[in-house]
Design goal:
alpha/beta, 3-stranded antiparallel beta sheet, 2 domains, homodimer, 14 strands, Aspartate Aminotransferase, domain 2, Aspartate Aminotransferase, domain 1, 9 helices
Chain lengths: 360, 360
Amino acid sequence: MTRKYNFSAGPAALPDEVLKQAQEEMSDWQRKGLSIMEMSHRSDEFVSVAEQAEQDLRDLMQIPTNYKVLFLQGGATSQFAMLPMNLLRGHSAADYINTGIWSKKAIAEASRYCDVNIVATTESDKFCSAPTQEDLVLNPNAAYVHYTSNETIGGVQFDYVPQTGDVPLVVDMSSDILSQPIDVNQFGLIYAGAQKNIGPAGLTVVIVRDNLLGNPLAATPSMYDYKVHAEAGSMHNTPPTFAWYLAGLVFKWLKAKGGVETLAAINLRKAAKLYAAIDQSDFYGNPVAIRNRSIMNVPFTLADARLENAFLSQAEAAGLVNLQGHRSVGGMRASLYNAVPEAAVDALIEFMVQFEKENA
Amino acid sequence: MTRKYNFSAGPAALPDEVLKQAQEEMSDWQRKGLSIMEMSHRSDEFVSVAEQAEQDLRDLMQIPTNYKVLFLQGGATSQFAMLPMNLLRGHSAADYINTGIWSKKAIAEASRYCDVNIVATTESDKFCSAPTQEDLVLNPNAAYVHYTSNETIGGVQFDYVPQTGDVPLVVDMSSDILSQPIDVNQFGLIYAGAQKNIGPAGLTVVIVRDNLLGNPLAATPSMYDYKVHAEAGSMHNTPPTFAWYLAGLVFKWLKAKGGVETLAAINLRKAAKLYAAIDQSDFYGNPVAIRNRSIMNVPFTLADARLENAFLSQAEAAGLVNLQGHRSVGGMRASLYNAVPEAAVDALIEFMVQFEKENA
């Protein structure tokens, strides 16, 4: 077996060690004679897996006890509706910051349930930056303020946490959760699709302050009511048990690696190297404002776009895969999530230098 | 490794061969150097897996071309809301048949969106039977008629498909899909959580006639709109890729076994043996009307309930696991899904005979 270096934006690379453990115990978990997939979610075995995963995530992110941690289905796209359905709480409007494609999707869905006030947008900048705190024109009567901490497609990341006073701050952290330390107390609700930095697709993690629960819109389906899930320990119905188990293995791996602080240092180093390689050359380019360059998703272009196909096919032949940019923007993109080793970035840079030499 | 005989009601047993293949290619799918979990859902590789799974399911169930097959998240519990949200289409009422715990959950959620007319209930019979066609008092103006073809907890299965004239028939087939041949044309919509007869938890299959799509209630979240998923090939957002892949392996396994007809013959034989063993003894009992005895879930009691713990612990020691009845009803339950081999049933019967000898 030769494992490739995988720069996929999501579903994305998982740690080799995690896949190896999942493989070893696939048919026989902990000598129980069953796969973890074949066990009732209410069995002692699975409940212990589920509780340990939650505890490990709480440890990794230092999640305070007045926050619930939910393991849900449906992806961030389901959250786009669940947010207004649960968090309006009698308000008629919510504030949204628009920094790109994922912000826009969140805004479009929320607009079906309330008045959406765009408190800042970088669309005129072709979404190549994030607004500053001073740019935000906040509505003190908003139910909440929503932003996307890292735009996976544009490669734009906030370099600060917006300050919103008494209005709860809500963040789509799908592509940068667990990549660097944060203070959970600054947020009312954090959500993340698992398939980037947590585990396989089909799991969504929600971290929500408990005083925001319990006042959903009348038409809210039971499965869209955070409180229903919180009270049932995310087992209102059968949860995605294998994805939850695998996320738990990733959390254990993160702890063994030294936790989020250690990973953050590695992530910063990985990203800095790659941006330096891009900046040192006129052959490659990245359009994002320096202060907002994502440490997780690095889009880049070739000065001569006609070379893109050659770049991608030669990279693939060199064992560097899934470097194609999102279909909506083109170009290249290297996603550098926690599970992408520094050696992968080194190999990519080496390839880029060589490709430039041969094609410049 | 010693694999146990697993009678879990769900998440449930998976075929040994399927787990073995998933294990072998866990870190390196088809020599691509990546896990199938680590690939974009829009990659050629995953799209081929997804399309093949759909085609194999279409072949197995002979699904007509005017039906869409959707691979969704959220379980049957999400369907309980999606049904009225999508299928009312201007109607104000829907018909529901009540045969037990799962029917009741579907009814409770639908009641939040429309007038629910209970067209028949077997509650006075303690849910130990299903109503006959003659028992059904149907409303010709109902948006649809809903029933649960097999009550997983009660072990009650319909022995016919209700005839509803021009009103679309909707069925929760979570625990008996693919267990016996059906004529899809008799249904407007079929749904099933995967974690019993299809694959791992976290995937829900919906088979829906295309003329029922496209008129959801105003408050319906995008992710609850069947048409949105149908038009996107179930990739409106990132689907649960590993669960979809694993379901595909199960469909291939079913085809290799000879398809649904072959499995149905085995399933009937497995169930008949176990019911015969129960009926031949006063030591064991099953309260369900003979014509409605489920071929998938066989609940049974001991004449002396004080022996239940001994039965369960000795069964487990003999390699027969997850025989405890649902916490809401107690007693024992053996779920005999497709992946439970006939040898497991033989071993269970042998154990039951021996246990009776020692304890009667």
